[in-house]
Each structure stands twice: as structure tokens, then as C-alpha cells.
């Protein structure tokens, strides 16, 4: 089956392969990511993941499947996107220091006229950070292309004291939920993994 991942994220590519889906095409979506003000974080990621899936749908072969995802970080309901510069990254990380926040990922599966969109939320708690901690983390360069200015799969793990929920969701792809969604559309990841191992 033709599978398209509508994301250039290396983390999402890695996680999809880890799920047993080893053969897929990557077509990055250039969908507009602006949304109307006042929407909840959950609604935002669902809208944007669906928009990303629809933006690449024409590239799918007949019967092909498009997988799209969108991830945001929310603190007290306010969305923290990717920082534009080091100063903005510093402000974001300072705000997250010693506090709990939520990571939302919307996932959309699109095949022909069938579409499924869901979201996952994970609560992340940061340890108390000093200004030196934040400055040194920014100096790694890691925060600059990450929602909320950190990546849990990298040096950002040093900032995270606790998580509640799906760890992979914080990386940008809720593996368990996606697996259930794929099964609901006839693609069993464990069967694929078993078949790959038997080759």
C-alpha cells in the first residue's frame, strides 16, 4: 500500500518506521498554519493535521494512505510555538521552568473519501531551571526548531522531571493512538512488524 507521511520531521519518520511501517514516502506539507483566535489547543492540532493531510492528498495513489500530524505546546492554555530567536526561546523556557505544561498532537489519516482525525495530550513537568541552564541549552541549538523551545528526545530530556501520558507524543507522534487509528483503517502495525521480521 502506498503510504505518505506529510511531514519532513526526522522524529516522525523514525517513529513510523519503529511502528513497523518501513516503506513510505515523505512529502512535506506547505499548508497554511494560521487558525482563528480563541480555539483550544486540541482543536488547533486537529485542524492543522487535517489541513496538512489534505494538502498532500493529491499525491497519493489510488487506495493510498496519508498520515499527517501537528504538535503544539500549551502553558495555561496559551500556545507556545517554535521560537523565532534565542531571546524568545529564553522566555519560553523561563516560563516552563518548574511548571507543568501540555503537549498536544493532532493526527489525521486520509484515504480516498475516508478521514479520521484525533488528538493526544501529554503533561510534562520541567524541573526548576537556572538562567545558566537555559542559556546553555539554547547554546546547543536544539530549541530553535521545536515547539515550546525544547526536544525531549535530545538534550531537552535534561530539563524534564516527569511526564504523564505518551512519551512519543512529546516527540511529535502519539504511537499508541496512531496504531489504533491505523488498525481501524485496516493496517495492523504489529502484523507489519512481524512480516518485516520474517523477510
UniProtKB/TrEMBL annotation:
EC numbers on record: 3.6.1.9
Task: Enumerate the UniProt keywords alphabetically.
Answer: Cytoplasm, Hydrolase, Nucleotide metabolism
Give the InterPro entries listed for this entry.
Answer: ITPase-like_fam, Maf-like
- The annotated site for Important for substrate specificity falls at 11, 71, 153
The record, for Pfam families, names: Maf
The primary site where this protein sits is cytoplasm
Q: Which domain of life is it from?
A: Bacteria
Annotated active site:
70 (proton acceptor)
State the compartments where it is located: Cytoplasm
Catalytic reactions on record? UTP + H2O = UMP + diphosphate + H(+); dTTP + H2O = dTMP + diphosphate + H(+)
User: Which cofactors does the annotated protein need, by name?
Assistant: a divalent metal cation
The protein's matches in HAMAP family, at most eight in alphabetical order, are given as: Maf
Quote the PANTHER family the UniProt record gives.
Answer: BIFUNCTIONAL DTTP/UTP PYROPHOSPHATASE/METHYLTRANSFERASE PROTEIN-RELATED (PTHR43213), BIFUNCTIONAL DTTP_UTP PYROPHOSPHATASE_METHYLTRANSFERASE PROTEIN-RELATED (PTHR43213:SF5)
Query: What function does the entry list?
Result: Nucleoside triphosphate pyrophosphatase that hydrolyzes dTTP and UTP. May have a dual role in cell division arrest and in preventing the incorporation of modified nucleotides into cellular nucleic acids.
- Annotated family: Belongs to the Maf family. YhdE subfamily.
| Name the record gives this protein | dTTP/UTP pyrophosphatase
Amino acid at each position: 500500500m502506498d503510504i505518505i507521511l506529510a511531514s519532513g520531521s526526522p522524529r516522525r519518520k523514525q517513529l513510523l518506521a519503529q511502528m513497523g511501517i518501513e516503506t513510505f514516502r515523505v512529502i512535506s506539507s506547505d499548508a497554511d498554519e494560521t487558525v482563528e483566535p480563541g480555539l483550544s489547543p486540541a482543536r488547533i492540532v486537529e485542524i492543522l493535521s487535517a489541513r496538512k493531510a489534505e494538502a498532500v492528498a493529491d499525491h497519493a495513489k489510488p487506495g493510498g494512505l496519508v498520515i499527517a500530524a501537528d504538535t503544539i505546546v500549551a502553558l495555561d492554555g496559551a500556545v507556545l510555538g517554535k521560537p523565532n530567536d534565542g531571546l524568545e526561546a529564553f522566555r519560553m523556557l523561563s516560563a516552563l521552568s518548574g511548571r507543568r505544561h501540555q503537549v498536544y498532537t493532532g493526527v489525521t489519516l486520509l484515504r480516498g473519501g475516508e478521514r479520521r482525525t484525533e488528538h493526544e495530550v501529554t503533561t510534562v513537568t520541567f524541573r526548576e531551571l537556572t538562567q545558566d541552564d537555559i542559556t546553555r541549552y539554547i547554546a546547543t541549538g536544539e530549541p530553535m526548531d521545536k515547539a515550546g523551545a525544547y526536544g525531549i528526545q535530545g538534550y531537552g530530556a535534561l530539563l524534564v522531571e516527569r511526564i504523564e501520558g505518551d512519551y512519543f507524543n512529546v516527540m511529535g507522534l502519539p504511537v499508541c493512538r496512531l496504531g489504533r487509528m491505523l488498525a481501524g483503517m485496516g493496517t495492523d502495525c504489529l502484523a507489519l512488524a512481524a512480516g518485516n521480521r520474517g523477510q
